[in-house]
Write a structure and sequence with these properties.
Subcellular location: Basolateral cell membrane
Pfam families: MFS_1
Main location: membrane
Order of helices and strands: EHHHHHHHHHEHHHHHHHH
Strand content: under 5%
Keywords: Cell membrane, Membrane, Symport, Transmembrane, Transmembrane helix, Transport
Strand order of the largest sheet: 1-2
Number of strands: 2
CATH class: Mainly Alpha
GO cellular component, one term: basolateral plasma membrane
CATH superfamily: MFS general substrate transporter like domains
CATH topology: Growth Hormone, Chain: A
Length: 492
C-alpha cells in the first residue's frame, strides 16, 4: 500500500482529528489482545479430553500466552521507537493469525504451548504496546477517554468471541475453530494500517556523506552508543528509585496474579454447577457486555476534574471491588446468581483495566510512559504466568473451584488496600518534599538577593574609593604644580 502522509504537528498532541481513527484501530488490536486468552477457555474442555491433560496443564495455554504478551513489552517498545506503531501492529496481527492456524494441526500440549502461547502471545504484545503508545502521543487532555474507548475493545470482542467460539467448536471442533480464529485475527493488520504516525516538526541536520566515509570508526562508535542508549531506555532500572512507580508495580503484580484465573475457569465452574454449555459460555458474554460500557464510562469519570487528581485512589477502589466479587462468587447456588456475579465481575474488571495504564501515564508522563510500560509488562509476566496454573492446581488438589475464587479474591483485595494506603503515604511524602523544596528555593532566593545587595554595596564602596582616589590625584597634581611655580620664583 502507498504510504499515508503523516500529520505535521507541533509539540502539543491534537486530542482529536485522526486520533479517533487511531483509537478505533487500537480498539480492534487491544480487543484481540485481551479477549483471545479468555475466549480460548471455551476450547479447553475439548482439548483436555482430546490430549488427555489435567486442569493445571490446560491452564498453562492461556497463562503462557498472557505471560508472553506481557514479557514482550520491552521488545515491542523498542520496535515502536524504531519503526513506529503501524508496522509493529501489522506484524503482531500476522503473528497471531499464523499462531492459531499452526496450532490447529497440533497433537500435543507442548506444541500448543509454543504456537498459541509463545508465538501468539508475542503477537498480542506487539498489538497491545504499540496501540497504547500511539494513543499517548495523540491525546493529552482527552487521554483517559481515549484509553477507555480503546480498552473497551477487550469486552466488546469477548462478548462476541465467547458464543462464537462455542458455536465454532460445536460445528467444526476445536481444530477448525482455531483455523477460523486465526483468519479473524488477521484483521489486526487492517487496524494497524489506521495508525498514522505523529511526527513533530523538527529541524535535523545530517552530516555530509563524505565525512561519514572519511570517519567510519566514529560512525560505528556512534551507532553502538545509540544501541546502548536504547537498551538502557527500555530497561531503565532508575524507575525503581521512583516511590510512586514501585507502589504501583507491587499493587499491579498482586492484581495480575489473581485477575485471569476466574475468567479462564468461569465456564467450567458453571458447567460443574449443572449449567448447560452454551449458557456457561454466555456468562463470559455477559461479563464482556457489561465491561463494554464500564470502560468508556470509567474513562469519562476519570477525566472529570474531581477524579483526575485522585485517579490512583479510584484505581485502588476498583481493585478492591473486583476482588470482593471473587470472594462472594462461591456463594452462588443458581444460574441467576452466576449472572449477577458475571455482571459485577464485568463492572470491577472494566474499571480496573480502564485505569491500569492511565495511572501509569499519570505517574510517569507521556515521555517516560513507553519505557515504563515495557518494564512493567515484563515484570508482570511472572504473576501472569503463575496465576492460572496455581488456580488450576487448587482444582486438581481439592476437586472444587471455590478455592481458586477465594485465593484470587483475597490477593486482589490485599493489593487494592495496599495501593490505597501506600498512595496516601506517597502523596503525604510528596507534599513534604515539595514544601521542603519550596523552602529551600525561597532560602536560595534570599541568599541570592543578599549576595546581590552585598555585591551592590561593595560596588558602591569601591566606586567611592575610586572617586576619592581621583580627587586625591587631582589635588596632588595641583600641589606639584604649585611647588614647581615656587621653585621657579626662588631661582629668580
Amino acid at each position: 500500500m502507498s504510504p499515508t502522509p503523516v500529520q505535521q504537528l507541533g509539540n502539543k498532541p491534537p486530542d482529536g482529528g485522526w486520533g479517533w481513527m487511531v483509537v478505533f484501530g487500537a480498539h480492534i488490536s487491544i480487543g484481540f489482545a485481551y479477549s483471545t486468552p479468555k475466549a480460548l477457555s471455551i476450547f479447553f474442555k475439548e482439548i483436555q479430553k482430546d490430549l488427555l491433560v489435567s486442569y493445571s496443564d490446560i491452564a498453562w495455554i492461556s497463562s503462557i500466552m498472557l505471560a508472553a504478551m506481557y514479557a514482550g513489552g520491552p521488545v515491542s517498545s523498542a520496535l515502536v521507537n524504531r519503526f513506529g506503531s503501524r508496522p509493529v501492529v501489522m506484524l503482531g496481527g500476522l503473528m497471531c493469525g499464523v499462531s492459531m492456524v499452526t496450532a490447529s494441526f497440533g497433537d500435543s500440549i507442548i506444541y500448543l504451548y509454543f504456537c498459541i502461547g509463545v508465538i501468539g502471545g508475542f503477537g498480542l504484545s506487539f498489538n497491545l504496546n504499540a496501540s497504547l503508545t500511539i494513543i499517548s502521543k495523540y491525546f493529552l487532555a482527552r487521554r483517559p477517554l481515549a484509553n477507555g474507548l480503546a480498552m473497551a475493545g477487550s469486552p466488546v470482542f469477548l462478548c462476541f468471541l465467547a458464543p462464537l467460539n462455542q458455536y465454532l467448536q460445536d460445528k467444526y471442533g476445536w481444530r477448525g475453530s482455531l483455523l477460523i480464529l486465526g483468519a479473524l485475527m488477521l484483521n489486526c493488520c487492517v487496524a494497524g494500517a489506521l495508525m498514522r504516525p505523529v511526527r513533530m516538526t523538527l529541524k535535523q541536520s545530517y552530516p555530509p556523506q563524505k565525512k561519514l566515509e572519511e570517519q567510519p570508526d566514529k560512525h560505528i562508535t556512534r551507532i553502538k552508543g545509540t544501541c546502548m542508549e536504547n537498551a538502557k531506555k527500555f530497561l531503565d532500572l532508575t524507575f525503581f528509585k521512583d516511590r510512586g512507580f514501585v507502589i504501583y508495580l507491587i499493587g499491579n503484580i498482586m492484581f495480575i496474579f489473581g485477575a485471569y484465573a476466574p475468567i479462564v475457569f468461569l465456564s467450567a465452574y458453571a458447567v460443574s454447577r449443572g449449567v448447560e454449555e452454551y449458557s456457561a459460555a454466555y456468562l463470559l458474554s455477559i461479563m464482556g457486555f457489561v465491561d463494554m460500557f464500564v470502560r468508556p464510562g470509567t474513562g469519562l469519570i476519570a477525566n472529570s476534574k474531581w477524579i483526575r487528581p485522585r485517579v490512583q485512589y479510584f484505581f485502588s477502589f476498583a481493585m478492591v471491588f473486583n476482588g470482593t466479587c471473587h470472594l462472594l462468587c462461591p456463594l452462588t447456588t443458581s444460574y441467576a446468581l452466576l449472572v449477577v456475579y458475571a455482571i459485577f465481575f464485568g463492572v470491577g474488571f472494566g474499571m480496573v483495566f480502564a485505569l491500569i495504564f492511565e495511572c501509569l501515564m499519570d505517574l510517569m508522563g507521556n515521555q517516560r510512559f513507553p519505557s515504563a510500560v515495557g518494564l512493567v509488562t515484563i515484570i508482570e509476566c511472572f504473576p501472569m504466568l503463575l496465576g492460572p496454573p496455581a488456580a488450576g492446581l487448587l482444582v486438581d488438589v481439592y476437586g472444587d473451584y471455590k478455592y481458586l475464587f477465594f485465593m484470587c479474591g483475597a490477593v486482589i483485595v490485599t493489593g487494592g488496600l495496599f495501593l490505597f494506603v501506600m498512595n496516601i503515604y506517597n502523596y503525604h511524602m510528596l507534599g513534604k518534599e515539595k514544601a521542603a523544596m519550596d523552602t529551600e528555593q525561597k532560602q536560595n532566593n534570599i541568599d541570592n538577593q543578599e549576595q546581590k545587595s552585598n555585591g551592590i554595596s561593595e560596588q558602591i564602596t569601591l566606586s567611592m574609593h575610586v572617586v576619592a582616589w581621583v580627587r586625591f590625584q587631582e589635588r596632588l597634581e595641583k600641589c606639584e604644580h604649585c611647588i614647581k611655580i615656587i621653585h621657579i620664583y626662588s631661582m629668580i
